Amino acid sequence: MNLFDTENIKWRRFTGGDEFDYPIDYSAALLNIREDGHVDMLYRWAPNSYCHFHRHTAETTSTILEGELHVIDVDPETGEELNTRIRKAGDFAHKASGDVHMERGGPEGALVMFNLYAPDGVLAESLDRDGTVLATSRVEDILRRRK
Predict the structure, then answer these.
(1) What are the φ and ψ backbone dihedral angles of 47, each rounded to 5 degrees?
(2) Angle at 36 between CA 39 and CA 28, to 5 degrees
(3) Closest CA to 51 of 62, 39, 35
(4) Terminal Cα distance for the chain, rounded
(5) pLDDT > 70 fraction of the chain, expressed in percent and rounded
(6) Mind listing the domains of the chain with CATH numbers?
(7) Which pTM does this prediction carry?
(8) Where do the H-state alpha helices sit in 17-89?
(9) CB-count burial class (<10 Å; 0-12, 13-18, 19+) for 107
(10) 112-146 as b/e, with b when 16 or more CB fall inside 10 Å?
(11) Contacts of 95 by beta carbon, 8 Å cutoff, 6+ apart
(12) For the chain, is the Cβ count within 10 Å smaller at the N or the C terminus?
């Protein structure tokens, strides 16, 4: 599989509605998933658009393949924005579980490879602005959808 030939990859697109005060437009492609909690995914952001506010409950590594990814770290207790990091093509990062943040594509969007490890099967939680969990992403749910 060629990760740069994104036209031949099966994408699942996510957008936001009126309930969000920021533009949401990103897509995800599942590359590999194993029952032991290892997941490999490709994400693509539209220019200057966000993904949903979330917390990683899995150990996560990421590699920026194209564009820029703006990562806004958020204090999980107060909801206050702590800082913004701009990650460019070629940047690699590793984060332990519990990382609360927002991400958005840069002016030309972003293409990012994520490798997650969730031994308990819980990958991430989508959050409301106040930190309330809106949805949980689990390995078992993804495996069930693939069948």
Answers:
(1) -55, 130
(2) 15
(3) 62
(4) 21
(5) 100
(6) 6-146 (2.60.120.10)
(7) 0.89
(8) none
(9) exposed
(10) bbbbbebeebbbbbbbeeebeeeeebbbeeeeeee
(11) 56, 59, 60, 61, 62
(12) C
* 34 class by beta-carbon count within 10 Å (0-12 exposed, 13-18 middle, 19+ buried): exposed
Q: In the block, which residue shows the tokens 């332990």?
A: 96
- d(CA 102, CA 100) in angstroms, rounded, equals 7
Tokens at 14, concatenated? 């996510």
Q: Which two tokens stand for residue 95?
A: 């984060």
Quote the DSSP letter at residue 3: T
Q: Which is nearest to 36 in space by CA: 132, 102, 144, 120?
A: 120
| 1 alpha-carbon distance from chain centroid | 21
Rg (CA), the chain: 15
Looking up tokens 């940047």, which residue turns up?
91
Q: Which two tokens stand for residue 104?
A: 């958005």
Low-confidence ranges of the chain (pLDDT < 50): none
User: ∠ CA(138), CA(54), CA(67), 5° rounding?
Assistant: 105
